[in-house]
Amino acid sequence: MTLLDGKQVSNDIKEEIKAEVDKMISKGERVPHLAAVLVGEDGASLTYVGSKVRACERIGFDSTLVKLPASTSEADLLKTVEGLNNNDAIDGYIVQLPLPKHIDEQKVLLAVDPDKDVDGFHPTNFGRMALDMESFIPATPYGIIELLRRNNVDTQGKHTVVIGRSHIVGRPMSILMSQKGNPGNSTVTLTHSRTQNLEAYLREADIVISALGVPEFVKADMVKDGVVIIDVGITRVPDASHPKGYVIKGDVAFDEVSKKASFITPVPGGVGPMTIAMLLKNTLLARERRSN
């Protein structure tokens, strides 16, 4: 069994990006600038955005955090988005999800300039990705592809089963794994909460990518020997014996499934760190496009 160490690979990517930034600085060029919009005080969002800001500092990016109260109106948030669209100093930005319930997330994401949409959520970027054109690929699927590529995991002709059909992970992952190339060229089955006989699909899978959000849903008896496991799930499970009062669990029962897997991502330390690394990579790409 080979552990797909997202922490190590993400550090490698950050060092590669830092080298590019150092070249820009040596030439007197402007460094990439990533902004993040955070509405409210959601704990997980605060942690995630904080990680992005620290990552920017480490590699030499400029970063801006726009913090807005949870009571911010949809109209005011759209004005903030418009301001970022028109700000030539900002190369790319994200609007951190989830947004408060009184705001239409789809309306806000549609207002983001596709050329600054480093999250890859705008329909323009999603459509270009589906057509195998240059685009910003959503950071988590992009990170998974890079993790597979850098670990030389062969996906060609394999049967990939994706659990979850979200626009953020499941659906783009199914598109990317079926496209030409390696990683890619696999036969993809996209499963979800309404799929009947899900376990039957899993037992046939060479590669399982799970973005379900149900702790330890995938057990050892559901997968075959030699399976490749990509665990996107991350759930806080209450645990009174732990100093934090909870533990982080993935969708996969790691201890038992890892004994059968050829490759497997840990949780935490697998897909999570890759998401931030690829967001930075998208921002570097945005900066390069704007320069050309």
Your description of this structure?
The chain has 292 residues and is of the alpha/beta class. The chain has two domains: 28-113, Leucine Dehydrogenase, chain A, domain 1 (Rossmann fold, 3-Layer(aba) Sandwich), CATH 3.40.50; 139-272, Rossmann fold (3-Layer(aba) Sandwich), CATH 3.40.50.720. 40% of the residues lie in helices and 16% in strands. The chain contains ten helices and eleven strands. It has helices at 6-26, 43-59, 74-85, 105-111, 123-130, 139-150, 170-178, 198-204, 254-257, 271-291; strands spanning 2-3, 33-39, 62-68, 92-95, 159-163, 187-191, 207-210, 228-231, 235-238, 246-249, 263-264. The strands form three sheets. A six-stranded parallel sheet has the order 1-11-8-7-5-6, with helices on both faces. It has a three-stranded parallel sheet with strand order 3-2-4, sandwiched between helices. Helix 1 (6-26) packs parallel to helix 10. The radius of gyration is 19 Å and the shape is globular.
Strand and helix order: EHEHEHEHHHEHEHEEEEHEH
For the sheet with most strands, the description reads: 6 strands, parallel
Question: How far apart are the termini?
Answer: 44 Å
Q: What do the pLDDT scores average to? A: 95
Low-confidence stretches: none
Q: What's the alpha carbon Rg, rounded to whole Å?
A: 19 Å
**Helix coverage percent:** 40-55%
Q: Briefly note the CATH topology name of the largest domain.
A: Rossmann fold
Content of β-strand: 15-25%
What is the annotated CATH architecture of the largest domain?
Answer: 3-Layer(aba) Sandwich
The CATH class of the largest domain: Alpha Beta
Question: What characteristic shape results from the CA principal axes?
Answer: globular
Helix tally equals 10
Number of domains: 2
Find the count of extended strands (DSSP E, 2+ residues): 11
Output the CATH homologous superfamily of the largest domain.
Answer: NAD(P)-binding Rossmann-like Domain
